[in-house]
Structures are given as C-alpha cells and as structure tokens.
Amino acid sequence: MNRAELVAEIEAGAAQLGQSLPGCAAESLATLIEELGRWGRRINLTAVLDPGAMVSLHVLDSLSLRPALHGRRIIDIGTGAGFPGLPFAIAEPGRDFTLLDSSGRKISFVQHMIGMLRLRNVHAVRSRAEDYAPGKGFDTVVARALAALPRLAELAGPLLAEGGVLLAPKGKYPAEELEELPADWTCEVTEVTVPGLEAHARHLLTLRRRGS
Q1: Run of H or E residues at 15
Q2: What is the DSSP letter of 131?
Q3: For residue 129, what is the domain's CATH number?
Q4: Whole-structure pTM value
Q5: Which residues form the domain of 115?
C-alpha cells in the first residue's frame, strides 16, 4: 500500500465513523503507521505489520473512541506504541494528552513520533499507572486492553478528576468483569463498529464513580 492509498483509507475510515479530521491529520496518521511498521520490523512494538490492518486495528479502532472523550486533560494508561493516545492527539489538537507506559522501547517510539509530527499537546511518561502521581486529576482516563475492569477501576481511580470518566474499550461483552465491578462505580456499555473490523465485537465501557 503506497502513501496515497494509506491516506485515502484513513480518510474513508474516518468518514465511515462520521468524523472529520483537522488539517493534515490523515497525513500524520499515515506517517504514524509507516513509522510503526518501520520500527516494528526491528523491535517488538506490535504483532500487526500490514499497513492496511494497522489502519483498522490501530488508527480507526482508536478514533472510534474519540466521541467519548471528556474534558481537556486526558491520559492513556498502558498506551503501548501510542494507541489510542497518538491518534487522539493528532485528531484533537485542542486537548492535552499524557501517554503512559512502563516499557522503555514503546515510550521511545511515542517520543519519536511526538518529535517527528511536532505534536505540542502530548506528553510521554515512562511509568506504571500505580506509581504515577500527576498532582492533578484527568478528565478522561483511557485504558485499552490493559486489565480487567476491577483492576482498571483501582488503577484509574486516583488519576481521575472530580466528574471524570474512565473509558475501557473491550472486545466481547465483558459480563463477568461487570459483575465484579466495585459498587462505587457505574458503567455504561456501548457497541462500537470499526471500519474493517465489522465482524469483530467491540464494546466501549464508560465508567464513572458514583456521586462524581
């Protein structure tokens, strides 16, 4: 897939999601995919190296969560190679993003992309979520494929500002995890359809602490 085809697929996918992308965002997202493939052939960042598959599994899957973002300060815990945080930051230049991961090689890639794309609204941090103490809470905490819901609630609770939300994208409907969710949390479940992944179940869980 050449660059023009990559950009076109990203733009078409965003349109299918009902989203518009600012300025040169599609070009930046294409660069992100190209660099992820280049780095991924040398170090273990992702199991998926096909550009078309990366568009669906990484970029569009990330953008499918974009409408649920709340407030200005957002943290992506367990960001890995920067997903969904980097696509968020590219698509939402007016918001501030912190991308957190304990893996040095993955945070190195995130920092590389921040510099390469000249992203001024992203801060990369190498840390475990339970060890991170930002001093100020976040409006949205995002955790993609990091842990089961009870553990996510435990990790995200100290990072959330008053009235903040925890976004936990899942594959199939997590009935057992929901039964184990602590009583001081509420959860809304939304089915999500991602272009290119229509055959795979996707659910977005939006969690809030009761009374906040």
Answers
A1: helix 3-16
A2: G
A3: 3.40.50.150
A4: 0.94
A5: 3-209
